[in-house]
Design goal:
The complex is a heterodimer of chains A (350) and B (394).
Chain A (H helix, E strand, L loop, with lengths): L2 H27 L2 H11 L6 H10 L6 H9 L6 E3 L5 E3 L24 E2 L4 E2 H36 L4 H14 L3 H13 L21 H31 L2 H9 L3 H13 L1 H9 L1 H15 L4 H10 L3 H29 L7
Antiparallel strand pairs in A: 1-2, 3-4
Chain B lengths: L5 H11 L1 H16 L5 H5 L4 H22 L22 E2 L14 E2 L10 H37 L1 H16 L2 H8 L2 H6 L1 H9 L1 H15 L3 H22 L13 H29 L3 H9 L3 H12 L1 H24 L11 H9 L10 H27 L1
Antiparallel strand pairs in B: 1-2
Helix pairs in contact in B: 2-4, 4-5, 4-17, 5-6, 5-10, 5-12, 5-15, 5-17, 6-12, 9-12, 10-11, 10-14, 12-15, 13-14, 15-16, 15-17, 16-17
Classes of the chains: A mainly alpha (350), B mainly alpha (394).
Amino acid sequence: MTLAKFILRRVGVMLLTALCLTFIVFFLTNLYPNLEKLAKTQGNFRMSDEEVASYLGRNGYLQPLPVKYGQWLGVLPGWTQEGEDGTLRGRCIDQDTPAADAPRFCGILQGDWGYSTVFRAEVSGIIGEKLGLTGRLMLWVMLLMVPSALILGVMAGMREGSRTDRTLSTFAITTTATPEYVSGVLFIAIFASSAVGLKWFKGTATSAMGNPSFENFFLPVLTIALYGMGYIARMTRASMAEVMTAQYIRTARLKGVSFPNIVLKHALRNALIAPFTVIMLQFPWLLNGVVIVETLFNYKGFGWTLVQAASNNDIELLLAVSVVSVIVVLVTQLISDIGYVYLNPRISVT
Amino acid sequence: MDLLSWGEIILRILAQFTPVWIALIATFALSITFKRRLGLYGKLFDSPIGMVGFGLVMFWVFTGILGGGFDMITTHDVLDQSASMKNKVPGTPYTKMMGEAAEGAYPYYLLGGDNLGRDVFSRMVVGAWEVIKIAPFASLFAFMVGITLGLPAGYYGGRLDTFLSFLANLILAFPVILLFYLLVTPEIVLTGIPVYMAAVLFIFPIVFLVLLWNSRFHTQPKTRNIYVGLTLVIGLWLYSGIAWNADPLGLIGFPPNLLVVFVAVVFVNSPTVFRIVRGLTMDIKTRDYVAAAQTRGEGPWYIMLWEILPNVRGPLLVDFCLRIGYTTILLGTLGFFGLGLSPESPDWGSTINEGRKLLSLYLHPALPPALALLSLVLGLNLLADGLREESLRD
């Protein structure tokens, strides 16, 4: 099997996964109690059961589930309905597109991600903006996490069982045992609270959305980076320790190559194959960290949006969020698989 | 009465934990005395890291059981509010705004009061109980599901493997928090979906045990009937009580909001266990002793459960410890987002979430549960590390 065929197959599986996943999300968000909650948050909380039903009927929520899903995908024509005053209302009709020039299909296949009921805006716009904010956060997390984790792991694995190894390994275990909501709270308590008085950093990152600075952005970045760091460092350590016992390293030592040279020129490249896949597979976990940290530091990015969409049952926003996150997860898996093959010639895609 | 100094607070807290110290010392003394006869568990006491981890874990286990289960360590009721104790610093003497404090009530709030005037120390202690009640069992159930599906997937391969792996990857592709937000809401509880999920997930332990006994004893029908019969009677009784809340004897029930938390945690953990078991099985099934068993004419389930499974117990045991830790983190996440458990619940996640809102002014409500969670998960990770080291040694 060639690489192209492998990738094609994986993309196929990916699409199937994304379809199944969005259908599950669609199913769960369209359960009647959830729709009732949606109607009440959109209308008012004292709506009677009949009012709820009529609101849902008017907005096309009471059609059969596969039909609604097809409309969202864009393979079925969007619903239309004649209102009491004679105007035509429908899924594809809004203020900007009157009924006359509204397209028949308006799903994600047509590039229409729908309308967010919480933010009262187009989903695509919200997702784009929030992804930008979170992308910046992730970029700094990666820049902090990956190099420090690799250095930590290589230093620990260089001489297995040494005191440096013990200390660094204990540190790595501690960071993996500290979820973001614990480390974040500890950091805010120590560095941002007026009760301790250090006040080096800001306890919220809301202002970092406009103009990020070291003061308001460092704590969230550190909080996310720390949890993933320990895991990558431990993988690097294991891989490094294994490489250091290999025959060719012993040969190099016997030839009299200096220790720094052995580590940098002989061991490092082979030792970094395993951590590469681990780093890629960390993305789904980082996504969780992002949700927690953005909530904790009130940074209104992608994770914060997920929480808002989920707690208000904002169906179309939530679906877009799940599509994006599942693509992130699956694409990183694919990259990790291909990268592994590319880095390690002994393994083939078959 | 005056405010306690930090020295006095620490001494009083240590004294409050007396039952835990006694239990810990007894455990360690017994285990170290008989460590040569206790197998892998005994070997744990040869590794300093393992001992530290085990100590931390057992500290919280005893704290949870004695404090939450038997009410021995707590100083005040976890839901008892006192308006004059709101946000009071650690060591403040206990007073009530209205009326006198009850006779014999503990005279201090050792770790201060939270924003509703509840005792932070007692809530932390009972928070351990909330974790101990759920995390080990949820991990155990996740293991049963993962093993029952992972063994055949790895052993047979083919279509079954493709299908099950696809399902597992599907669940793993969900961001955990999204899944929690979709599953652990009062609206979903109303639809009854958690009950159906529980009905599916909780059948696996029974299936597992029945297969286990049947494959071992199917040549001795008498013994087999006893084991399988007992499993079915007890298992189905528990099953009807826990999953359907329809125990014919009315003894066992499961509060619906606890059930949904439990189901969600098992659901999130099982695919990972499945993948681990599947990978290990694929590795082990090429070994000679498996070929020998096949030649002897043993059935596939016998080979999976009695030849392969015992030989992967080392990595599984290590992962089990890590998984309890991960489950603890997940439970904390649920509490942190206010999902599932009642808002008054003293679990660590909820208390951290409440405490963080006042963090710029008061540290004491948020820090104790945060440090407690940290130390328990750290203990589990160290324990796993010790176990890994010791099981690799033989």
